Amino acid sequence: MTILVFIGYLILNHPTIILPYFILKRLGMEIPRVSNLIIPVFGFKTLWYILLLIMSALGSIYYGYFFSFHLLHMAQFNQLIKRCIQAVTKNGDSLLWVTLYGIVFLYIYALITFAVYRELKKDEDEFFCNTMYECMLTMLHSGPISGVFEFLQSPIIQPFNQRFNKALFDIIFFIIITTIGLNIVFGIIVDTFSELRDNKWHVDTDMKASCFVCSRPSYDFEQHSTGFQYHVNKEHNQWSYVFFFIYLNEKIENDYTAIERYVHNMITNDSLDFFPLGKSLCFQSEHIEQGQSQIDSIKEEIAKLQSNQLKIMKVMQI
Fold it and tell me: What keywords does the record list, in alphabetical order (predicted)?
């Protein structure tokens, strides 16, 4: 089944071999302009389908546990899960730097623990602090979750000054790492998710309130018998434009017609002048009708003037 899905992906998307940017810059080659319709072979989507195929093969040959990896593929068909993943990956650089900065703090606390409080560790197998390496691993494993007071015993029989220093050590760790550090990470994710939700709301509202192609508001079309839905589905269907762009991308340039070459040149130059902004066939027909009615009214006025002139000439002859 996975093989059929992978073959279908290759047939429908036609992944193209595009060298990564850093390789092109290293070779001194010009970085080409890549269309959003092109899916690179070394892109994440292609590598994801290859990974699904590998997991399917491992599950068939070795253990069926590898098939559980395919459950992650449900995110491909669920927009809500995609937005949740994008909320983490969109500001991945910020999360990465915050995480590295937190590891620096953990390293400093591991140094202090190894130098001062190493003898206070509990006699349990999961906590180690005999070397600096063990102390750092223990800090990474238990520090952000339960804090350093979980694996360091309080010096009950020690003088009060040492107990005070240990309490201050635990409180500062709790404030910097557990409270501030984790809340910064959660804040970045929540803010990004809220931003994505607001952007989706604006896009949905704009799609319902105006035409994507001509940007005319929906209430302009409600004054006509056809209505707004007929306009966006028949007259200015956005998917017709997308399919036309795909058709131009797949067609050989030497076979372009004059109109196709004009649109292709406009797209290449990042120009959208070929879109009928503020124009529609229904409004053009309305303008024609209005113009025709104005011509008819002008003809009537001319006919009245001619009749009045004839009457005046008759009176003058008498």
Answer: Membrane, Transmembrane, Transmembrane helix
